[in-house]
């Protein structure tokens, strides 16, 4: 239970609704910012403006999956209000106040460090990333079907990266009958691809492996699909980039070549926001409960 905890939920999309629901079920007191257009009411949760919140009482602040932008602005799907998180706001919180976000950037990390607060990035956790790979794969299949005129079965598919998302993507497209090749840097990832019954290659050889490719799926957040790689791709190829913005694809050159390339980060929140929200809610509440117990035992 989270009885006695006061938590601020700042902005976000439909995933946040599952988080709010779970927090209220566990008896936390919730202040909601950026939700005034939301018709649904949650017992124990109060809609407020940023200026109305007493941050000196906050035990935790929950940000949307993207955190903030580089100007400190927070995404608010259910509001037209501009919500900005600053170092001054964080400095008003108690020392034990913890900031939760999906990912971070230089701005968010900077103000958290300056205010000497703890930041927990949920998407850095293996459990969140693995659970999230399930709706990510389903969304990738949906995009592949929508944007091609051929079946996945029998198609030549190149998957770049065999991390937590790449492994789920590769396994599923292989089971759907795709002829899957995996490009990776780490020798252990190449070994894992072989164990899964998939062809594999070093990323440095990517240009040699895209000439007959029908679908290329990138999971690596680095410039991987460069103009040199795109120049070797057939015109009918579909590129789906699952890496966090700005992705690993040169989208300008792909468009110039007439290659359909789609940036698709955050698929869980698009194709299955309820499930994605429940994943985050379960992990968040366990983390908060553990920290709350730790705080109590140290006092």
Automatic annotation (TrEMBL):
<feature type="domain" description="Alanine dehydrogenase/pyridine nucleotide transhydrogenase NAD(H)-binding">
    <location>
        <begin position="150"/>
        <end position="291"/>
    </location>
</feature>
<protein>
    <submittedName>
        <fullName>Dipicolinic acid synthetase subunit A</fullName>
    </submittedName>
</protein>
<dbReference type="InterPro" id="IPR031629">
    <property type="entry name" value="DpaA_N"/>
</dbReference>
<dbReference type="Pfam" id="PF01262">
    <property type="entry name" value="AlaDh_PNT_C"/>
</dbReference>
<dbReference type="Pfam" id="PF16924">
    <property type="entry name" value="DpaA_N"/>
</dbReference>
<feature type="domain" description="Dipicolinate synthase subunit A N-terminal">
    <location>
        <begin position="6"/>
        <end position="123"/>
    </location>
</feature>
<dbReference type="InterPro" id="IPR007698">
    <property type="entry name" value="AlaDH/PNT_NAD(H)-bd"/>
</dbReference>
<dbReference type="InterPro" id="IPR014215">
    <property type="entry name" value="Dipicolinic_acid_synth_A"/>
</dbReference>
<dbReference type="InterPro" id="IPR036291">
    <property type="entry name" value="NAD(P)-bd_dom_sf"/>
</dbReference>
């Amino acid at each position: 239970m989270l009885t006695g905890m006061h938590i601020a939920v700042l902005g976000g999309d439909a995933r946040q609704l599952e988080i709010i629901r779970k927090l209220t079920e566990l008896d936390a007191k919730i202040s909601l910012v950026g939700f005034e257009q939301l018709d649904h009411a949650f017992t124990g949760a109060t809609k407020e403006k940023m200026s109305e919140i007493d941050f000196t009482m906050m035990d935790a602040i929950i940000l949307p999956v993207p955190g903030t932008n580089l100007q400190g602005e927070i995404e608010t799907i259910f509001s037209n209000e501009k919500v900005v998180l600053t170092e001054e706001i964080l400095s008003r919180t108690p020392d034990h106040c913890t900031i939760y976000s999906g990912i971070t950037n230089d701005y968010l990390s900077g103000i958290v460090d300056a205010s000497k607060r703890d930041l927990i990035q949920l998407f850095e956790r293996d459990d969140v990333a693995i659970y999230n790979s399930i709706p990510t794969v389903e969304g990738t299949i949906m995009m592949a079907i929508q944007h091609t005129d051929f079946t996945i079965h029998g198609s030549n598919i190149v998957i770049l990266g065999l991390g937590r998302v790449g492994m789920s993507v590769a396994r599923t497209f292989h089971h759907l009958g795709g002829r899957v090749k995996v490009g990776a840097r780490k020798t252990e990832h190449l070994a894992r691809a072989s164990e899964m019954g998939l062809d594999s290659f070093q990323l440095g050889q990517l240009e040699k492996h895209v000439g007959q490719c029908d679908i290329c799926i990138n999971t690596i957040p680095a410039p991987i699909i460069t103009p040199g790689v795109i120049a070797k791709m057939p015109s009918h190829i579909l590129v789906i980039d699952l890496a966090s913005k700005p992705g690993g694809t040169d989208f300008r050159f792909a468009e110039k070549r007439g290659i359909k390339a789609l940036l698709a980060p955050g698929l869980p929140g698009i194709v299955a926001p309820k499930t994605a929200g429940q994943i985050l809610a379960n992990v968040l509440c366990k983390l908060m409960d553990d920290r709350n117990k730790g705080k109590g035992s140290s006092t």
